Every structure is written in C-alpha cells, then in structure tokens.
User: Which sequence fits this backbone?
C-alpha cells in the first residue's frame, strides 16, 4: 500500500482547504539508480505490413527499436498504430523508449504539477515503475493515450463516451454533431433515445412525431459516411431504448428487416458481404442496439402478464403488450441478427455510485462503461499472466501482493490523466472532471485459467476470476480514498456520499459471500477482503477521488501490445496459434498455456510432449494419448469440437460482475443449432444471475458472410450444335524422373527449387519451397509452381515462360548466392534465369540475354559468350539432391527459428499452412470451422471476437472502441 506524508507538496491544497500531503510511491519492480531501459536487451527490426488480399504494402518503417522479448506482432502493431510523426521524417518515433517516455513523462509532470507526489524522488519512482510495467507488458493504457498524450494534438485519453439526447430538434442535431466528432477521433459513443417521443404521440403542432427509430436512420447514415471518409473501420456506437417506450417493437425489428433486405439483394447478385460495394445501401448497420429492461418487465415475462408502454411526455399508458410476446420478439431478433442485446436497468442502477446526479441510462458501444450521460471513461488493463508464479517444486500461485501494488500505480496514473485531458465536448469534459470515472480491467483471463488447470466453465475458474476482480476493484477504491485525502474527493461526491458508500458495502458483502474454491483463489480472496475493509474505513474518512474504478473491456489492440493470448474476460479462441517470426516467416504453435496446464494437472514431461504433439496435429484434445477425459474441459475454447457452452459464458460474467463498477464487454457465443428458446433462456438467466448487460451471437446467423443458400436454377438453354474442339494433351512425367534441386537466396529470402525433366525431352515440372518467408508468399510460390508445371506438361515452351517472367520486379529482390545470377529483380526473375541456364540451349538463352558467370568472363576475355566444345558439361545437368532433404531442412529451420523466438521444443512448432495469416484463419483450416467474423478493412485478414467487438490480429485494428 502506498503511504501519504504529513508535509505539504508544492504548497498545493485540495478543495475544502485541506493541505495536500502527497503520495509516497514504493518500488515494485525497479532498482534504485538503474533505469528500466538499461535492464533489457534491445534490437532493431524492420516493420513491413501488407494487405493479404492484394499484396500491397499498408505500412513500412525500417530500423525500429524494441526489446528482444517483444513478439513480432506486438512490435508491428505498436509501430504502425502508436508511433507518432510522419513516416520517413526525423520527427517520426522509431523506438519503444520514445513512445513510453512521451506518455510516462507527461503523466509524471502532470502528477507533480497537481500535487500528487510527496517529493521529486517519489515522482521519479512513479515514472520508472510506470515505464517498467509498460516495457514488460504488465499493463497498458487504452489506445487514445498512446495516440495523443505528449503530442501537440488534443490530449484525449478516453475511449468510451456516453451522450444524451432530449425531445427537441436542436438536441437531436447536437447528437448528430457530437457523435460525428467522436467518430472522427476514432472513438465510440452510446446513448439512450427513450426521451424522444414515440411515433404514437403528437407534436405540439398537432401532427404525429417521427419517433426515435426514424432519427436512428439519420445518425446511422452519418456514422457510415464518417467511417468511409475518415477511417478504415466501422463507426462504433450503441443505441439503447427502454422497454416501456411505445416504439420498442419497431426498434427491435429494425435490423431484422434489414437482414431480410440483405438476403434479397445478395440473391439478386449484389455484393452484400461486410465491406462489400453494395452493403452501404442497408440501414442501421453502424450501431449495436440494446433494449433496457426493468425488473418489472422481467417479472411480467415470468408471470405471463401484460406490460404497459408509456408516452414520453406525460408518462401515461399508450399501449399494453404481452410481456412474454415482446420478450420473444427480442429473442427472435437476436437469434437472426445478434441485435438487440439486453441491459438490465434495475441491476445497473442498484450499483450506481452517483444516483443523486442522475440515473445510468446507457453504455458505451462495447457495453462495459455505464455511468452518467455526457461522460467518458479512460481505460487501462493488466496482463494477468504476468502475476502467475511457479515455484521450484512446480506449485503455482497468483501474486496478489504485487498485483495490488501495480493496481495502485495504474489507478494513480489514470486519475492524473483527467487533470490534463481534453474532451470532445464541453459537457463531457465537465461531467468527467466532476466524477473522474476510471475503468481499470484485465486481459488474459482465459490463458490464466488454462495455465492453472482450471476449466473456464468451472467453480475453480469462476472462483479465481471473481477473486482477482474483487481484489482489483477493492484496491482501486482504496487508492481512490487515499487520493481523496491528498487531492480531494470528486466534486459530485458530497451529494452522493451515502449512495457511494452503500455501493462499497455491497461490493464488500459480495466479497464475503463468494465461494472459495481452491488453494489458488483462497489467498486472493483474503487479500481482497482486507482491501474492502480498508475501502469502507478510508472512504468514510476521506471520501473517494473517483465515482467509478473498474470495467472489463475488450482489450483488443492493447491486448496484442501486451502479447496476450486471450482478450478481456474471454476464453481462448483455439489451442493452436499463428505466430509471426522475426525472419519474416510464420509458424503454428500450440499455446504456451497448454504445457503449463498439463504440468499443473500432474502430467510427466514425456506425457506433456505427446499430448502437445497430438494437439498440434488435430487442433483439439479429444483422444490425445494419456490425457484423462476428466481433464478435457480445461482445454475447452470459444470455438471447436469442445466449445464452451453458452451458459458457461454467462456464469463467468456473473462471477465477476459483483466486483466491477461498470460492466463486462462480452458476447455469448451460441452454436448454430441454438433455438429462439435458448436465446430467451440466456437473457432470463443473465437477469437472474445479476449481470448488467448481455449480447448473444448465434453462429452463421448474420448475412455479412457468404451463405449456403442456392440461387434459383436458371432455365436450361437449348443444347448447342456439337462442335469438335482440338485441345492440347497433357503429357505427364513418369514415376522416376531426373531432376535438379537448387537452394537459393534472393535479397535475404531463402528457398529451394526442384526442377524435374522428362527422360528424353526437357523440363516437365518445377517445385518451389520458401523457407523463411511469410505463409502467403510460400503458398503463392506453391500455386505458381503447379501452374507452370501443368503448362509445361501441356506443351508451353520453357522459353515462353523465361521471356515473360525474367526482369519482373517485386520484393524480395537484390543480391543472390548464385554466382551465375548475382542480382535478381524478384524471386520469379531469379527462378527463370536459373531454369534457362539449366535447361535451354545456349543460343536460345543467349538471345534472351541470359549467360552464366563463365560465359560472361569469356566475353570479357574473348569478346564471345559462346563456349567451345571442350567446355560443355552436359552431365552436370543431371546433378540433383534428394527432395526429402529439403523438407527436412525446412522443418529444422522452423524449429531453429522457434527456439530463437523463445518457443519450447514441447510446443511442436511447424511451418504455418499457406492459407493462414492469423490464429482465426489457422483455426478455421485446422478445425474446419467458419469463425463468422468480418475481414479487416486494413489488411484483409479475418478478425476475431474481442468482447462485443472484433479485433484484427494482423494489424491491431478493431471494429469498436479501443
């Protein structure tokens, strides 16, 4: 715990005349007199990111500096997303040190200026500890901090915003403008439209009102335009409507009707895939929709009674509906198109710390931030795997003490940021500065549970998740109370003190009542209990600095920055992962967490190796040698043969929710076999278990992916008159055929070419294998060599290929290790020069300007390229190496590269298959699944779910707020 001093700091005073005492900051990871940067090994890398769809380069920056232990993916994403300055200019950041310094030094300066630290020495410790934690991927601020802090632009630090709109045209137009400005800045916003009168009510002029659904149309068009004009990702927004609004049924059906439109247009031949040319003609696609339900409504659903829909202006009953039927319509809509989600109004406001200042009516787009209208929240997330300890005897524990200290550090920094932050609107700035909402959270929970031998859907897994969440929020509010003693409570505290302290007691009571599961979570619960006791004591004495402390966000881009295997509260996607290598290649490896889990479960090293090799081949654990069936559920993932049940996701949310200020960004995945009744049950159980919000996604339900529906058969045309066609005949090679295997290097890219001949008549096939290049290049070379081989066997002359493909320019290019072809303008250029030298007659290739080193030397000496008869060596063309040797070498190279990357031998590394560019695509290929995710607009790879949003593993782009 950080202490406060009794002396003044910089002569500043908190509100109310209290003398500022300043914080004493204690060291956690750093060493006095040694900067964190000096304790790690740094290396320079080249970052080149391409679009997998067309091969174009999206981003390129060479010579960037990162710690050696940072993965290629983390370095690529930080370089392309967070380094500031124009690429190619001296102002461009080129080192992780510069990025961290830009942010951390700004936080330190603001902390000193606002009296947070007891002394300059404490400020320096704060700076070094914060830098260490980011450097070692222990935590990360949300993306806007890395985008904006320390730059000359606006210092926006928040990713989450809630707006408001009233029943007036002026307010509605302000909504459009404010939302647009937030989208332009790359963030997302949510709001509740229930104040707008319904289409069943009258205007003051006597006509019928348009209703909120009609105004949604205008806002959706605006969001789509700003997205296409200023960014490459879809706008992120949340639209909420209360269940008692007279237009609620129209609201529920908005996206259902649009899905029907998409299907009709797609069947008519229009491009309706996500990102397709014609999808923009469809409405309401830029928002997540949620219905805000009350306890009264849910009880009416259970009892099958009527429920009143009330006018917005008078509160009088406009209509009565059957609650169960309305609930059914919500489930039917969600079953078809994943919208609307559901938010439980009474549960949300039961945990509201500031009810005297207004109700909580809405959330941010990803549903984790829920507080007052016209407010914002800045986020930060901790990497839970960094706190898992293994002792010498193989026992595991969660380092609760160090975790608590890092939470204190991060919460302090997050609160400091509000002192200098800019906001998109003045109203949001006023509310945020008055209530100082923070959103600390975590990532890698799924990896932590698996590594500790816990099934995601188990009492032990939920116990560990609940204890960590309780400790995190308890320590956050304890630090908030300590900050209140130093720099004063938030402005709205005095008015809401009773409610705030009541909510603190609710958290503490939930902590006491929680079930302790095993030796891992019990010590964490004990630490959390102590923290909550301090919260109650210090809060009563000092008040609190922050109205809100914690949420569980998607942790999309920042999760990749921290090299997390899993995002937010989500389970693992699959057991086999796609890994980029420093050399430019890629491989598939079994997750780091699998061997840890097997060791925790008591398996011996040789058993672990056998199980891991089985997983590497099959992608799952079913029938793995020596693995006991009762341990299968430890390795259950979000998708695959053993996927976690929908209620398993809901139960995990319920385990964490009582210990969070806000809510949880998560979508409950449901198999394609799920029924509408299954969706109803999930929504009902979410309410009963105390979650604040839920969204479901039934696999293969949305039309934004290719569907299997067949088009109507066209009428058969009359059979045409038979025409005799003369086609070339393919001449296949015999089983035994002579060949040459050549290893080569072009511009640092290594590869092998095997060229096989007909016994008596020239070249018949070519095999190309790339060693360290990316999987797409390797796959394209495979496909290219097959196409050339088929052409050769149908009689296309080799000289035709040589004339077409030599001198073709593209990367990699440059120096080669072949003395006959010293420079090549591309791999294709080299390949056909080498084939010409090996298989074409001298006269033919000489006419094409292709000569060997000896021939070029002869030309210098004699003026002629043509060799004498004595110099011809026909027998040399028959030399070849066994093809099996090249495969063995490729596998060995992958293992060597894996070892250099810090991947253990037990993880069974193998070259990644040619069609995979990330873990989602690898999983689809290995398990034969469709992940039902959109393609990334930036790099063309398939995204994966992260909370309620989508994340691109390749470039770090997200479909929602960061």
Assistant:
């Amino acid at each position: 715990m950080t202490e406060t001093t009794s002396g003044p700091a910089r002569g500043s005073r908190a509100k109310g005349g209290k003398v500022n005492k300043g914080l004493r900051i204690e060291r956690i990871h750093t060493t006095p007199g040694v900067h964190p940067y000096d304790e790690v090994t740094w290396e320079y890398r080249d970052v080149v990111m391409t679009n997998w769809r067309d091969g174009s380069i999206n981003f390129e920056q060479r010579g960037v500096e990162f710690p050696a232990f940072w993965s290629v993916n983390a370095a690529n994403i930080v370089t392309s997303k967070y380094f500031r300055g124009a690429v190619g200019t001296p102002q461009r950041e080129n080192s992780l040190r510069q990025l961290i310094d830009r942010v951390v030094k700004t936080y330190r300066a603001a902390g000193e200026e606002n009296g947070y630290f007891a002394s300059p020495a404490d400020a320096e410790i704060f700076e070094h500890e914060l830098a260490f934690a980011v450097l070692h991927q222990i935590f990360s601020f949300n993306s806007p901090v890395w985008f904006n802090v320390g730059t000359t632009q606006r210092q926006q630090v928040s990713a989450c915003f809630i707006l408001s709109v009233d029943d007036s045209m002026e307010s509605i137009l302000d909504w459009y403008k404010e939302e647009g400005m937030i989208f332009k800045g790359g963030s997302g916003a949510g709001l509740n439209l229930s104040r707008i009168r319904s289409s069943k009510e009258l205007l003051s002029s006597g006509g019928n009102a348009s209703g909120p659904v009609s105004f949604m149309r205008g806002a959706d068009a605006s969001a789509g335009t700003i997205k296409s004009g200023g960014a490459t990702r879809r706008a992120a927004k949340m639209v909420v409507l209360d269940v008692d609004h007279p237009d609620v049924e129209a609201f529920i059906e908005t996206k259902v009707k649009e899905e029907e439109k998409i299907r009709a247009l797609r069947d008519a031949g229009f491009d309706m895939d996500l990102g397709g040319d014609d999808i923009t003609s469809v409405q309401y696609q830029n928002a997540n929709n949620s219905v805000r339900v009350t306890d009264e409504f849910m009880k009416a659903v259970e009892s099958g009674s009527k429920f009143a829909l009330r006018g917005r202006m008078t509160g009088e009953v406009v209509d009565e509906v059957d609650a169960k039927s309305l609930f059914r319509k919500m489930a039917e809509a969600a079953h078809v198109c994943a919208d609307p989600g559901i938010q439980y109004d009474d549960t949300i406001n039961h945990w509201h710390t500031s009810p005297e200042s207004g109700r909580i009516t809405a959330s941010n787009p990803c549903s984790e931030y829920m507080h007052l209208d016209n407010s914002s929240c800045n986020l930060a997330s901790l990497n839970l795997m960094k706190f898992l300890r293994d002792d010498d005897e193989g026992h595991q524990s969660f380092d609760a003490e160090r975790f608590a200290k890092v939470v204190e550090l991060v919460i302090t920094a997050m609160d400091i940021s509000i002192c200098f932050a800019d906001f998109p609107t003045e109203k949001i700035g006023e509310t945020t500065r008055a209530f100082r909402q923070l959103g600390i959270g975590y990532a890698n929970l799924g990896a932590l549970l698996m590594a500790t031998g816990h099934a995601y859907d188990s009492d032990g897994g939920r116990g560990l998740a609940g204890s960590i969440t309780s400790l995190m929020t308890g320590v956050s509010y304890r630090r908030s109370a300590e900050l209140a003693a130093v720099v004063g409570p938030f402005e709205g505290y005095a008015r809401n003190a009773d409610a705030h302290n009541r909510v603190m007691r609710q958290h503490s009571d939930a902590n006491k009542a929680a079930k302790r599961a095993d030796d891992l979570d019990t010590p964490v619960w004990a630490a959390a209990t102590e923290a909550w006791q301090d919260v109650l004591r210090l809060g009563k004495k000092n008040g609190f600095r922050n109205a809100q402390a914690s949420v569980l966000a998607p942790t999309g881009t920042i999760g990749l920055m921290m090299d997390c295997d899993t995002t937010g509260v989500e389970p693992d996607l699959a057991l086999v992962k796609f890994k980029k290598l420093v050399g430019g290649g890629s491989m598939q490896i079994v997750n780091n967490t699998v061997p840890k889990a097997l060791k925790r479960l008591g398996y011996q090293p040789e058993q672990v190796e056998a199980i891991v090799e089985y997983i590497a081949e099959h992608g799952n654990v079913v029938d793995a040698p020596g693995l006991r069936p009762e341990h299968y559920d430890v390795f259950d993932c979000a998708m695959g043969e053993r996927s976690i049940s929908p209620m398993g996701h809901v139960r995990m949310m319920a385990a964490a929710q009582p210990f969070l200020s806000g809510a949880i960004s998560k979508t409950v995945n449901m198999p394609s076999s799920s029924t509408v009744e299954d969706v109803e049950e999930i929504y009902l159980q979410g309410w009963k278990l105390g979650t604040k919000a839920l969204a479901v996604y039934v696999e293969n339900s949305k039309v934004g992916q290719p569907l299997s529906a067949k088009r109507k058969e066209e009428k058969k045309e009359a059979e045409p008159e038979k025409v005799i066609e003369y086609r070339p005949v393919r001449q296949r090679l015999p089983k035994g055929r002579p060949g040459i295997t050549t290893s080569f290097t072009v511009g640092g890219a290594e590869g092998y070419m095997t060229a096989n001949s007909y016994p008596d008549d020239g070249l018949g096939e070519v095999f190309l294998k790339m060693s360290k290049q990316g999987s797409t290049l390797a796959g394209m070379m495979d496909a290219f060599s097959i196409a050339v081989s088929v052409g050769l066997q149908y009689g296309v002359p080799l000289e035709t290929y040589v004339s077409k493909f030599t001198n073709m320019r593209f990367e990699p290019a440059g120096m080669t290790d072949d003395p006959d072809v010293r420079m090549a303008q591309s791999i294709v250029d080299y390949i056909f020069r080498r084939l010409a030298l090996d298989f074409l007659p001298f006269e033919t290739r000489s006419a094409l300007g292709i000569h060997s080193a000896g021939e070029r030397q002869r030309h210098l000496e004699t003026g002629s390229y043509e060799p004498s008869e004595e110099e011809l060596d026909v027998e040399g063309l028959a030399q070849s190496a066994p093809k099996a040797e090249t495969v063995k070498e490729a596998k060995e190279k992958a293992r060597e590269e894996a070892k250099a990357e810090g991947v253990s031998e037990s993880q069974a590394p193998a070259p990644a298959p040619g069609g995979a560019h990330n873990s989602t695509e690898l999983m689809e290929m290995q398990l034969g699944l469709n992940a039902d995710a959109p393609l990334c607009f930036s790099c063309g790879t398939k995204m994966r779910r992260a909370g309620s949003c989508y994340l691109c593993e390749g470039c770090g782009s997200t479909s929602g707020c960061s």
